[in-house]
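From the shared-data thread, chain only:
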Amino acid sequence: MSGHGFHVHGPHDHELEHAASGGHDHGHDGAASSGKGMSTTGKIAVSTAAIATAGAIFAYMGGATQANAGLYKNNAAIKKTEASNQWNYFQSKSTKQALAEFARDTATDDGRRQGWQVKVTRYEQEKTEIQAAAKKLEDEASRWDAQSETQMHQHHRWAQATTVLQVSIALAAIALLTRKKWLERAMYGVAVAGVAIGALAALHI
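Structure, as tokens:
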């Protein structure tokens, strides 16, 4: 209560002032300590938000590259099937050519022999075209396979980067609870490592 120009603090008044001052005494040392603590806490909180944002981006990229890898592998399988069909077609033409050559060689009539020769020549030309198409499809399948492998490698990098950043966030939480400086430093170090791995993924390394 107050009276005659002076004020007496009650217990509840003291507790309210204590809470308002951040749990510290009103001396200069206490104020400096409180300010320092709040500064460190705020810095860790902001860093954690930035790390979480980077982790979300890395996780998205990891999912996207994994999806791309599956799509490219599927494209490779389609091209391999098409190439296999072409090689089967090539084999069919080879069989027809062999039969035509046999008929040509056993023909007793020059006219018939010449007619079979025309077919042999046509089958040979068709085989050449089919072989070229089959090889082209095989090359395309190889390129899709290579792109799939590249995407999977990137996916693993993004996944590694995401995991490391998650560890960094966990360290940040422990650092906030324990106020251990070495944990704070470890948190920043692990975060830098995670970002570095993410950079490797972005650079296809």
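Residues 62 and 155 are 5 Å apart (CA to CA).
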